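Name: Agmatinase (putative)
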Amino acid sequence: WVALWTRPREGAQRVSAFPAPPCSERSSFNVPPSAQFVARPVGICSMLKLPVQTSPEGLDAAFVGVPLDTGTSNRPGARFGPRHIRAESSMVRSYNPSTGAAPFHSLMVADIGDVNVNLYNLLESCRQIREAYQKIVAAGCIPLTLGGDHTITYPILQAVAEKHGPVGLVHVDAHTDTGDKALGEKIYHGTPFRRCVEEGLLDCKRVVQIGIRGSSYTLDPYKYNRDQGFRVVLAEDCWMKSLVPLMGEVRQQMGAKPIYISFDIDGLDPAYAPGTGTPEIAGLTPAQALEIIRGCQGLNIVGCDLVEVAPVYDASGNTALMGANLLFEMLCALPGVKKL
Ligand SMILES: [Mn+2]
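Structure predicted for Agmatinase (putative):
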């Protein structure tokens, strides 16, 4: 099927007024097909219509789905996030003129499918996810994850920190996800970052949480986070502002050591991303999301995720489209991406 779209009909490129885009026949890298030559809805539904392979071997970066949502506290449905993000990603093209990034000129990227999870057993799912990511990072491949609820970041960071040591974290979210337990359980989507702290997976002086907001059960809900050394940037401190200055400070805070980006789509305002399980009003804008991700360029990013897209609450598909674009922006921010 790759051959089908990389070899346009004889003469098809000559009728175009535009220069032919690179394609996998002439590039040593995987290159998504252009809609100038391959109709947008054509092809197997992979992320960015990249080739699908089952192994991370030989890849610099890979998109991987984790369709788990049984750690969700409110509306379920994020198990369908990866499929819908892939479907909407057919609108995303291969260059980023805003930043100059040409990721498919210097990185070998593919979609490596989904981690199998046990929807009836969260602990078992965490083990499956950890083991899958141990293989991905061992291959020298940077994972770009399509979630799934936020529970998945805990086993992902277990694997990432095993390879890189404690990592810095750029965490965009409405919630800090540092709860201790709920209904007596320590593993669900409200606790991943407390579990990570307890296991020493985070370099706590290099953790920033952006977009935090909402009602709480106490009047000082961020004490735990500050006590760990996290920087907590409330949504109200972002309202009606450019986040470019903030990201300058974040780059200083992160330095040259490894960092991980965890982006919960509910960090955005539900006007822009209603398809999610635990929405909170008055969130970040899409432009601020771009400022945050583009502001991570130059950092030593060793992994990224985009979680909590629950497509059923957004019949327009816009939440999944947002997720697809933000994952593309993360790819464009990775170390080693060529700037043209
Ligand atoms: Mn979250």
